[in-house]
Structures are given as C-alpha cells and as structure tokens.
TrEMBL record:
<dbReference type="GO" id="GO:0003824">
    <property type="term" value="F:catalytic activity"/>
</dbReference>
<dbReference type="InterPro" id="IPR050228">
    <property type="entry name" value="Carboxylesterase_BioH"/>
</dbReference>
<protein>
    <submittedName>
        <fullName>Pimeloyl-ACP methyl ester carboxylesterase</fullName>
    </submittedName>
</protein>
<dbReference type="Pfam" id="PF00561">
    <property type="entry name" value="Abhydrolase_1"/>
</dbReference>
<dbReference type="InterPro" id="IPR000073">
    <property type="entry name" value="AB_hydrolase_1"/>
</dbReference>
<feature type="domain" description="AB hydrolase-1">
    <location>
        <begin position="80"/>
        <end position="333"/>
    </location>
</feature>
<dbReference type="InterPro" id="IPR029058">
    <property type="entry name" value="AB_hydrolase_fold"/>
</dbReference>
C-alpha cells in the first residue's frame, strides 16, 4: 500500500469514526434527555391507563368490518355519551372522561375501523364519510335512547360526516355535541408552525412520503418500534403544550397508542384527513347545544380551525385552553371533563 493510499484510508477511517462517534453521542444525549424526563416527579404514575373495564361488544358494519365496542356505566341511565377517538389513537384515549362520567351516564366507546381492536379496512374504505356511516350504525345498534356525541380530532370529523349524511338524527336522537381539537377542513393548508415556504415544501412531499411508507409498512413499523425514545420526545413536544410539566406516564400512554397504529393505516387515512371538508354540514349541529374545545398550542388542528367552526355555529360555545396542544383530553382532563359535564346538564330529556 502506497503512502498516499494509506493516507486516504486513514482519512476515511477518521471520518467514519467521527461520524460513528457523532451518532453515538446523539443517541446518548437522546437517552439522557428521556431518562431525565422520566426521573421527574410523575403525578400520574399510578393511573390505571388501559385497565378500565366495561361490557365488550362487536359490531359488524354494513361493509363487513368488525368494530370493537365497549359499553360502560349504568345500563338504565337516561342519557348515553358516545365517544369517537382521533387519528392513530383508540377508545382508551378517553380514559379520564370515561372515568369521570361512568358513574352517572351510559358510555359507548368504539375503536374506529383499522384502529385499536377493530378490523383493518383497505385504503378505499378508509374515508371520513365511511367513518360517519360507522358511527350511524354504532348509534343504531348500541344507543337505545337520546345521546351526546363527543369527538376528538378525526372523531370530530366523523361526527361532521354523520351530520352531512344523517341530519335527521340531530335534535331528537342526538341532543348535544362536543368537538375537541378538530377541524371542518383545509388541513392541507396547515403550516405546522413552519415558515410559509418550508410548509409548502412539506405539504408537497408529504403525500408521496406517507404513501411510500405505507407500502413499506412492516419495515416502517420496525423502525418506529426501534425509535421509541425519539417517538416519546416527539409525542411530548407535539401532543402536549406544557411539555415540560406533562406526566411521562401520560406521554408513554399516548405514544403507545400511536405506535400501535400500523404505518399502513396511517397512510390509508392520511388522504382522507387532508381532503376532509365538512364546513357546510355544520349548520346541522346548530339546533343542539355544541361545545368546541381547542388548545392554544395545537399545531395539528390549530385554534383558527375551531374558530371557523364556531363562526359557522353562532350558538356554539368555544373554549381555547391556554398552554395546551392536540391531546387536550389527556393533558387537561379536568378542563375537558368540566366542559362535558356542563354540556350534559344542558341536555333536555
């Protein structure tokens, strides 16, 4: 080996070594950061997330998909509260609200298709309109009397899709609605807190990127599982406004639901969320008491989207919660629970 060759090999080795050291240092820093977060006092460490029990049922939809249903609370309660969870979550995301209301109200929770313990659907059947049809079938089979609908994020869109397709249900069967951290449309215009030019680039490449990941779902899922510390930090930063003080146990709980959602499901529903537009259907909700809740630091469904819904619903009550992001029902359960209790008191039976 010549002197020049040895020099080149030495330089290459040094670069590889430096790169490896940089990766190792970044990994160490990440673990250190997560470790420090987990060592902080955690008021929710003993909270029994995922351990509440109810009466499990299965609904086979008109297109043949099995939906996982849980019924809780007294069977003879005069009013039923139906909870519709968000994108990449499941019915357990309503833990605090279920725990608070189950003593006095009949509760119906369900895993939206392809989420939680419900059956997977293909991309063609992963639409907001189909979710609205699913909700209509849930109400028909499991809600014998009047009810109140509560929807977070994609769950709120599900309620809007139901309003668009079954306006006759609102007023008699459905007596009130709560729309939490959701949007009536134009999600494809979100800036995500980025500068305008960068945001345009992100939205331009996102559909192709998500589609590509969906086609390589198994590989992407393995990568997501391997990067659980990174996922923890992202969930903490994006999902919670007051990220410095949020319980690590709550972040873990939210992140575990997101990670349990297969990448293919994330990809299948992404176009539906971006194309969702149900602003014109909101007037169906006007005759019933409606409460809109949003965190002032919500990047995924920002306050402007809630304000647009409130403008279309002059009788609705809009509450913007300070220092709070998208997972408001987990971050500020007391605020959400109080709002729901106030709403339920307004229902005429």
């Amino acid at each position: 080996m010549t002197t020049t060759t040895r020099r080149r090999v030495g330089i290459a080795g040094a670069l590889v070594g430096a790169a490896s050291a940089g990766v190792a240092a970044a990994a160490l820093a990440k673990r250190y950061a997560v470790g420090r977060i987990r060592l902080r006092p955690d008021t929710e460490a003993s909270e029994p997330f995922g351990e509440l029990r109810g009466r499990e049922r299965t609904l086979v939809t008109s297109d043949g998909k099995a939906l996982h249903i849980v019924i809780d609370g007294p069977e003879d309660a005069p009013l039923t509260v139906v909870f519709c969870h968000g994108y990449c979550l499941n019915l357990e995301s309503w833990h605090y609200q279920r725990k608070d209301l189950r003593e006095n109200y009949r509760i119906v929770l369900w895993d939206q298709r392809s989420h939680g313990r419900s059956q997977r659907a293909g991309a063609d059947d992963s639409t907001i309109d189909r979710l609205g049809e699913d909700l209509a079938e849930v109400i028909e089979q499991f809600v014998p009397g009047p009810c109140v609908l509560v929807g977070h994020s994609m769950g709120g869109m599900t309620i809007m899709a139901l309003a668009d397709r079954r306006p006759d249900l609102f007023g008699d069967k459905i007596r009130a609605v709560s729309l939490i951290s959701t949007s009536a449309g134009k999600l494809a215009e979100l800036t995500l807190g980025l500068p305008a030019m960068l945001s345009k680039v992100v939205h331009k490449v996102a559909p192709t990127t998500v589609s590509m990941l969906g086609k390589r779902g198994a590989l992407a899922d393995r990568a997501r599982n391997a990067g659980s510390d990174i996922a923890f930090l992202i969930t903490r930063f994006v999902g919670f406004g007051d990220s410095k003080n949020v319980s690590p146990t709550v972040v873990d709980f939210a992140e575990s639901m997101i990670r349990a959602t297969p990448t293919e499901v994330v990809a299948d529903f992404y176009p539906a969320l971006m194309n969702h537009d149900k602003l014109s259907a909101l007037d169906v909700l006007d005759p019933v008491p409606t409460v809109i809740l949003v965190g002032d630091r919500d990047w995924l469904t920002p306050p402007d989207h809630s304000k647009a819904m409130a403008a279309a619903l002059p009788k609705a009550q809009l509450t913007e919660v300070p220092d709070t992001s998208h997972l408001i029902q987990l971050e500020r359960p007391g605020v959400v629970n109080d709002a729901l209790r106030d709403l339920l008191k307004r229902v005429d039976l």
